[in-house]
Amino acid sequence: MQPQTVTIDLRKLPLLAGVDEPTIQKIASVLQVRSATRGQVILNKGGTGDYLLFLLSGRLQAVDITEDGRAIGLSFLEPGDYFGEISVIDGLPRSASVVASAPSIYGLLPRPQALELMHTNPLVTERMLQRLALGIRRASSFRTILGIPQVFPRVYALLDYLAKKKPGGLVVIEELPTQEEISIMLNTSRETVSRAIQVLIQRGVVEKDLRRLIIRQPQVLRDEMALAKSPHDGQKPSGPSA
Questions:
Q1: What does pLDDT average to in each consecutive run of 10 residues of the chain (242 residues)?
Q2: Which among 143, 63, 52, 49 is positioned nearest to 98, based on CA atoms?
Q3: Contact 123, 19 (CB under 8 A)
Q4: Cβ pair 50, 15 in contact under 8 A
């Protein structure tokens, strides 16, 4: 087989957009490009922060491993995203693992060059600070979702969290995670996730369209979440308990 040639325009990566040309060329000279198959571990929790990484194509998932060995999905990474910055910044071990959820290509920028990029480019630093702040807010929201005691409302809360409002008012999840990925994120079974989504489809709350999920009745998801968080006074839960 002929070796695959990968052409990368670093200027199109959101973190590097607008960075001066000498810096772009310096990054290009040291960036190492790798490929990963589905299910391959790219970063291990506890590993050293030797690189800042960029996802060039494919899809990745950040995963935390609990003390009893269970995997909990944290977030998804899409092409253009960067990751591994926390360990690059503080020099401490990786705080999570990253696994390829689809065949992927990614780039590794060595820590010395990554730190130089942060120290000499205020635009890059500002973007990273905004990303870290967003990550803190998302982690808080996700902790709230995991705190919902009933599993079905927990699934509904995650769908509401992932949904985005499009021009014209349509609310959709463009790249719906697989049921297995959702089950890992919510610490439940794939079968339970399947049943919860099927209930929503039967009620006309959501509609599946290939990998896209259209939320026809967003308020219903929020109502289910509010019901799960409040005292039920003997009402029957809307889904099985965790």
A1: 62 93 94 94 90 94 72 79 93 90 94 95 94 84 82 89 86 85 83 91 88 87 69 43 40
A2: 63
A3: yes
A4: no
Q: Structure pTM? A: 0.69
Residue 230: the pLDDT is: 53
Q: How many CB atoms lie within 10 A of CB 236?
A: 5
94 alpha-carbon distance from chain centroid: 16
pLDDT value of residue 233: 41
* DSSP letter (8 states) at residue 8: -
**Tokens representing residue 28 in the block:** 């290009």
Would you call 122 exposed, middle or buried from its count of C-beta atoms within 10 A (0-12, 13-18, 19+)? exposed
Q: Which of 77, 46, 81 is nearest to 64 (CA)?
A: 46
In the chain, alpha helices (H): 21-30, 85-90, 111-120, 122-146, 151-162, 179-186, 190-202, 218-229
* Alpha carbons within 13 A on the beta-carbon side of 116: 11
CB-hemisphere CA count at 13 Å for 101? 23
- Cβ atoms of 150 and 238 within 8 Å: the answer is yes
Asked if 58 contacts 109 with a C-beta cutoff of 8 angstroms, the reply is no
> Domains in the chain, start-ordered, CATH in brackets?
10-139 (2.60.120.10), 147-229 (1.10.10.10)
